[in-house]
Amino acid sequence: MDGDIPLFLKNMFNIAKGITQTFGSNCEVVLVDPGDPDKAVVMIENNHISEREIGDPLNDMETYFLRSDLFNSINIVANYKTESKSGKKLKTTTIFIRNNNNKIIGLLSINYSLEYFLKIKKRIDSFCLIHESMDHVQQSVEQYNGFFCNTLEELLDKLFKEATSRIGKPVSSMKKDDKKEIVRYLNSKQFFLVKGAIEEIAERLGVTRYTIYNYLAEIKAEEDLKII
């Protein structure tokens, strides 16, 4: 087939190889001879990018370049989007090779695979995500019933006030069931996972820590019965 390739295209083989050797395995260069549209690809480096082969016909974009009057005064179409046969995203630049009559007699296309960079871009975009308003903070606060505190002591105060307000009476007037409901509420907020929380609540409710343990055991038993 080499004997059928025009000399001016053969002279560009080393240029194509130089481009791919400079930009690496993610870069493909294709040389096309429009004079033989059914076997237009005369040279291709790193053809794993577009998955084309030597002897392949003109593709749709190349045919469009050759037939459209839009490109009569253009010699380079740079950085347009294409895809490989398997759907890989490519950035393509096509250079028109013209004769003295301005007719296109060859096409040199550089295809660069963007797959690696698109993965990096996705990670960078995720890392650089910022919120333009405080709406997301408000949503997070609402998930915790408005409890947005700087210290554990402040959180305990807010939770305890919320719990006692649900009972509707001061601690001094509360019965066992009232105090157990406070413990139930605080337990639903996972407050007792905090070290020292049981002793703190026991002191506030005027009971021993063993009483709080008993309340928690009773609450767990009641919840287990609901599951059954």
Q: Summary?
A:
Helix content is 45%, strand content 17%.
Task: Pick out its properties.
228 residues; alpha+beta; Beta-Lactamase; five-stranded antiparallel beta sheet; 45% helix; rod-shaped
Verbal overview:
The chain is an alpha+beta fold. The protein has two domains: 2-114, Beta-Lactamase; 135-227, no CATH class. The chain has helices spanning 7-10, 13-23, 60-67, 115-127, 135-143, 152-167, 176-188, 197-205, 209-227, and strands spanning 27-32, 41-45, 76-83, 89-98, 104-113. A five-stranded antiparallel beta sheet has the order 2-1-5-4-3. Helix 7 (176-188) packs across helix 9 (209-227) and helix 8 (197-205) packs across helix 9. The radius of gyration is 37 Å and the shape is rod-shaped.
Count, helices = 9
What is the CA-CA span between the terminal residues? 81 Å
**Radius of gyration based on Cα positions:** 37 Å
Task: State the share of residues found in helices, binned by percent.
Answer: 40-55%
Helix-strand makeup class: alpha+beta
Write the CATH architecture name of the largest domain: 2-Layer Sandwich
Question: What topology does this entry show?
Answer:
Blueprint: H1 7-10, H2 13-23, E1 27-32, E2 41-45, H3 60-67, E3 76-83, E4 89-98, E5 104-113, H4 115-127, H5 135-143, H6 152-167, H7 176-188, H8 197-205, H9 209-227
Antiparallel strand pairs: 1-2, 1-5, 3-4, 4-5
Helix pairs in contact: 6-7, 7-9, 8-9
